[in-house]
Fold LacI family DNA-binding transcriptional regulator.
Amino acid sequence: MTRSPKSNANQLEIAKAAGVSVSTVSRALSDARGISDERRTQIRKIAEDAGYFGRNRGAAEPTKHLRAYVTGSLATGGLAPFYEAVIGGLRDNARDAGFSLSVRMVDETSLGPERMVRDQEKEEANVTIFVGIDLADNLADYFLNGSQRAILVNGYDPEMRFDCVAPNNFYGARMAGRALLLAGHRKLLYIHDHTRWTTTQRRRGFYAALEDFPDASCTAIGVANGVDAALLAEVERRTKDEVGWTGVFCANDMAAFRLMNALETAGLGVPGEISVIGFDDLPYAAMMHPRLTTMRVNCFEMAHQAILLAQRRSAEPGAMPVQLECAVTLQSGATIAQIA
């Protein structure tokens, strides 16, 4: 079968043509809820014209299978658009590489070797992909001591035993901190959420930016598990001039959303009185008013690199582990004001 010149279209290209995010394209093409009929029709028309639906017709059936486990925090932590984009990218790239792919959302606290054995008996996978999940010791030992192979996506293995791909959280957060500092802000607030290796790197990167500005200072608060008590108390202190921070780095966009709501309720203007920058560039960042300035993570590229790692690991099971970091870029918005 002769392939159309357009038949290599992927969701990232469709997203660019439609002027939407990859996660919006993924949801539209999978008939997920939350997409207007007009938008869905527009995206499907662009995909059809680009040869997206027909690009694999006539191709041989996949001979290798991937199984992906995705963190259940996407259902409750405001990160659904992020992981939808990653999963959409994995599906696209797996199909293009000749893999079949199954996806399971799991409670990572109960994910162990027993689950791996059961799932492998039901459906044999050549490579197992963990998305947003840090492997517990017993799970790591299962893969290290067996014949199955594991790849971490949006995760790190500090002992360098597994293939990994993640955003460059350290330098992305350093860029975020510098954006505030170069705008003249010297009293900063850092808002962090749950702690894992990826977010630890964001914290380290942010504080690395402060090292270049000896007159800068920072206060840190946590908003883990959706609890805003510390955030609301800190905003109240700011309204009473008990603290003087003028710039805030939020470790993810959901934290920035919660902060901006609290600031508006307290009568503190963004960016007139408080400047804010987030991380991830999730779709709702563009819906916030004013538009959130944030660090954009390219979820599709991260997924693309994960499938390349899966191809390599499948072909060379004993190859040295590779750990990749994808560039993070500044998405300009309207939430940082120059004060000096």
In short: Confidence is low (pLDDT under 50) at residues 1-8, 56-60. The CA atoms of residues 313 and 322 lie 10 Å apart. The chain has two domains: 11-166+298-326, 169-297. Residues 80-97 form the longest helix (18 residues).
